[in-house]
Amino acid sequence: MADTAYDIRNNEQAQQFELSLDGELAYLVYRFYKKNIAFMHTVVPDSLGGKGIATALAEFAFRYADDKKKKVMVYCPFVAGFVRKHPEYRQQLDPEYHQP
């Protein structure tokens, strides 16, 4: 898994999974909605691009959702593409939610 090299933390107050590296902050914003968790937006500064950070954040987020027994709603374009490339995560998607 990509995030094994990164220290990702859940900032519950800001509702985002965060990774600090080289003085920059990358994050994946989430929100709780009804019985689900929604992945809203992923931000990786240009200086951190190409290091697998967004993938690490997505993997961490899906593990968190699984641990909390939450179905996932995807609003983030990066996470939508991640799920297309990694179909093993589709089982975690809310079946009532239409994937973008």
Would you kindly provide a written description of the structure presented here, covering whatever features stand out?
It is built from two helices and five strands; from the N terminus they run ββββαβα. It has 100 residues and is of the alpha+beta class. The mean pLDDT is 92.
From the structure above, extract its key features:
single chain, 5 strands, globular, alpha+beta, 100 residues, five-stranded mixed β-sheet, 2 helices
Q: In this structure, how is the largest beta sheet organized?
A: 5 strands, mixed
- Listing every helix as H and every strand as E from the N terminus to the C terminus, the arrangement reads EEEEHEH
Number of separate strands? 5
Figure out the total of helices: 2
Low-confidence stretches: none
Describe the structure in brief.
With 100 residues, the chain is an alpha+beta fold. It has two helices and five strands; from the N terminus they run ββββαβα.
List strands and helices in order, with pairings:
Elements (H helix, E strand, L loop, with lengths): L7 E4 L4 E6 L2 E10 L2 E8 L9 H15 L3 E4 L2 H9 L15
Parallel strand pairs: 4-5
Antiparallel strand pairs: 1-2, 2-3, 3-4
